[in-house]
Model the fold of this input.
Amino acid sequence: MLRRCGFNRRWRQWIYMCISTAHFSILVNGTPCGFFASSRGLRQGDPLSPLLFIIVMEALSRLLARARDGGYISGFDVGRVNHISISHLLFTDDTLILCGDARDQLCHLKSVFVWFQASSGLKINLGKSELVPGPHLKTKQSGMVLLRSWRLGWLAGNCSNSVPGPYGKSLWKHIRKGWPTFAKNVYFKVGDGAHIKFWQHQWCGETTLKSRFPKLYQLVSNPEASVQELASFIGSSFHWNVSFTRSIQDWELESVAEFLDVIYTTVPTPGALDTIH
Done:
């Protein structure tokens, strides 16, 4: 691995010497039992550990990039003009892989892991891997695979809500912090409205309802409600079930009338998927 990365023979010998000459001792009933050599790995806290890990993970990064460039996995396109296709992000102890949720893409991704195992000796522990379904939101690149400390999770679509369990912490928790800013710059096309916030996402008009009707927003009973929660179908008829904390005053009727004109330009479609544009 080091040779393929361009390190010369002397440097590789130095690294091997640092690894192979390490000795360990353990305590049995509080008494040291001599030293023994290590068959593999580094000592805990060894400063070489993160440096060598970065080099090894570079191999995985190259494999994923080639799989994306070859069309085996789709990645995720960022930007509307001169977009960048991102297939993976590497962190200290986390790897975020973005790909489609099609069966063939998962098979190609598995092949990447097999090649990485063959070249590095690192193997995903399937016993500690877990398939975690997430909320579905139809996008051009639907599907997301999260590998956190080599634990496999499946997050199909976007995740604008808090993620339960251990996946709501560390890496994904920090990524999710940027969702409010990201949501302000995208337009949602309403399907059933399950994943679109009625007041806080841009889905009818050129801005959010929260920004367009700030005084009405201060009076709503449920500012976090989704479009689906406020949509009411009775037979073939439809109406919006928006409630306020107090009665509307005379001087607010004009604003309410404009508000109703705006929201009734869009009608959700039960069973359809929400999309991002």
In short: Residues 188-276 form one domain. Residues 165 and 266 are 35 Å apart (CA to CA).
